[in-house]
Amino acid sequence: MRTDVLGVAFDNVNLDEAVDRALAMFEEDGPHMVATPNPEMVQRAKKDREFAGILSQADLVIPDGVGVIHAAKILGRPLKGRVPGIDFASALMGRMAGTDRRLYLLGAAPGVAEQAAVNLRAAYPGLVVCGAHDGYFQDDSPVIEDIRRARADVVFVCLGFPKQEKWIAAHGGEAGARLYIGLGGSLDVFAGRVERAPESFQRLGLEWLYRLAKEPSRIGRMAKLPLFLVSAVGARLGRN
Ligand code: UDP
Predict the structure, then answer these.
(1) Ligand 1 lined by 92 (C-beta under 6 Å)
(2) Which residue has the least CA distance to atom 19 on ligand 1?
(3) Which of 18, 144, 227, 234 is most enclosed, with most CB atoms within 10 A?
(4) What confidence tens digit (pLDDT) does each residue in 197-233 have?
(5) What's the CA-to-centroid distance between 221 and ligand 1, angstroms?
(6) Is 158 exposed, middle or buried (0-12, 13-18, 19+ CB in 10 A)?
């Protein structure tokens, strides 16, 4: 049973459980989708029914942001904890390394996915990165064909939300991989273009604050986040 947090149903899993579930999906025919919603995505799903429908159909939905964990607690349905998409992806690559499972990287500005591939092969010896493509394409067909030709098992789809989830829903079957994971800006981090918050910030659940300090232009997007928790309080009070 999933845990509803303001309209998006989350799997109550920790990092290891999430990775085990993803690995089990390799054993079945695809396509499977893993979604990693943060509060901004939950807010988007409220007004975008297509996006909400896609999230509800995903095979695994993990809570990426600390805001989701707070909201779940406020709603009286606590989740085990945050599973940042990038940690999930890293743990999965650790388990794929040395197997014959093939990873394809899709998204970000030209050159970023290729650089991420170089870095990831070095970080996870034995990891098969079978292809990479930037996220600024006009025509889907050559990208789908490239993923097919690469015989990818898993694709990190990093086009930003809700584009990446919609792309997976529309083209995942055709591209032939078993598992697709929407991972936002992760390729920029893997390529070393964007720095992740230091561990102390991550531990305190303040990664969002670090990101804001680094990219103050995100203030407009982030200003909506307190409203997310306010909606959780409203939903809780409405129920009591
Ligand atoms: N992006 C892309 N194609 C697009 C729009 C965005 O590949 O048409 C990439 C962008 O370059 C960045 C990622 O998608 O690498 C989105 O990053 P952001 O940090 O905004 O995503 P979040 O993690 O907040 O979803």
Answers:
(1) no
(2) 185
(3) 18
(4) 999 998 888 888 898 898 899 888 888 888 899 999 9
(5) 14
(6) buried
